[in-house]
Amino acid sequence: MADFTGIRPENVFRFFEEISKVPRGSGNTAGMTEYLENFCFTHNLDGGADDAGNVLLYKDATPGYEDAPTVILQAHVDMVCVKEQGSSHDFGKDAIELVLEGDVLRANGTTLGADDGIGVACILAILDDDTLAHPALECVFTVDEEIGMLGADVLDMEALEGRRLINLDSEDEGVLVAGCAGGIRVDSDIPIGRAVIRGMPVMVEISGLRGGHSGVSIHEARLNAIKALARYFRELDKVVAFSLCDISGGDKDNAIPVTAKSHFVVEEEDLDKVREFTQKFEARIKAEYTASDDAFRVILESGTPHKIPVMDPKSQDKVLNFLLLMPCGVAVLRDGQVMTSSNLGIVRTGVDRQTGIGHFVTTSLVRSVMKTQRDALADKICAHTEFLGGTALLKEEFEPWELTESSVLRETMQKVYKELYGKEMKVEVSHGGLECGVFARRIEGLDAVSIGPDIQNMHTAKETVSVSSVARTYDFLCKVLAELR
Ligand SMILES: [Zn+2]
Description:
Layout: H1 10-20, H2 30-42, E1 46-49, E2 55-59, E3 71-76, E4 98-101, E5 104-107, H3 114-128, E6 137-142, H4 150-154, E7 164-167, E8 175-180, E9 182-192, E10 194-207, H5 225-236, E11 243-249, E12 260-266, H6 271-288, E13 297-302, E14 306-311, H7 313-325, E15 329-334, E16 337-351, E17 358-368, H8 371-387, E18 391-398, H9 408-421, E19 426-430, H10 435-442, E20 447-450, E21 455-456, E22 464-466, H11 467-483
Parallel strand pairs: 3-6, 3-7, 7-20, 8-19
Antiparallel strand pairs: 1-2, 2-6, 4-5, 5-22, 9-17, 9-18, 10-12, 10-13, 10-14, 11-12, 15-16, 16-17, 21-22
The structure holds zinc ion.
Residues 76, 115-116, 145, 169 line the site of zinc ion (ZN).
């Protein structure tokens, strides 16, 4: 175990060490609920757990702060469980093994859980310290943030009196997150006609892409496997004639797809041309995307000629044009920040067994920090679908947490940050999701912000946190609370 002797803030790391012993993967957080209930008991605090396992702890205002508006401090207790290949770690029962190397704290072959264990530990350290000055505190520890903000979604907001919320789930010191994108899913369905032809069956598969979160990584222009495959066929079309059998790719609307594949049919004598084209295509794309996707690969396999069901030529054109022209990636950028984007996440083809009609279906996730821009881009995808004779359905809509014009929390934090560290605190709107959004949507007039220390490689076994950054963030947070009279 790491030795934290002499490392400040001592209490934050003591609590982080303690909760690192409690298994707390998303969906397995009962141990944390129990730990926090026990903390509540030993610290003589009011509060307790709800049916979902969320815990709410109250602490009174310190002398002189009785009239100051209540502050909500919030962090999520669950963590993403990822381990290195070959690691025997059992997230169901083993403690996270902490490794301290200079300023870097990491785990031994697993995610560290600094996201959001450091946020939890900071709140516990504040509750534990009777020398700090602060308004009345309502401390909210939510479960299952990482699998869809399930805890925050069912939290009883009536139990909260505070209208100022500080969320501790961000990962850039010196950045204050003051809004986040909303989203909407668009499911497109285009009927396709079928035919049967005789020819050489070929399978092509795009792989080796980097992928990533469709909110957090969309500005990095990583290659989308489905888009790459559409381009492959568009360019192949200039070399040989082919007929598509099927096309599939991606498996989550909120992840940039890393693989896509298709079966198609060519004349036997054209196979060599397809091979040659494929090699050149692979080299061309690799050269274009060396910065983001240097492991890009196109795999090609062929069989023996026989009779094969394919799309009719008109349907094939529809499918390929649809994929080629579908909006995907950053749509609106302002001052270097992504306002609106979409991700073509899933593509499938299939035949309805009852009707015998072929279907080509896709799922896109549209995100925007502005509801109206989100809806306009979703509508564009609907128009694109309808133009090709298909139908589009809008699903799983969630509203953005929009940047408010003024905010006492924001102004106080910017002032305190400058006083403490002599630099301006940056205000950003995140393109990913944050629990603040759930609170802001459900509590009228809520002033919310999100901060956190420098955390790298979240959700991977290489996750690290900077120890000195935790100290600065904690000092900053305590100073902000003292300012909120
Ligand atoms: Zn988190």
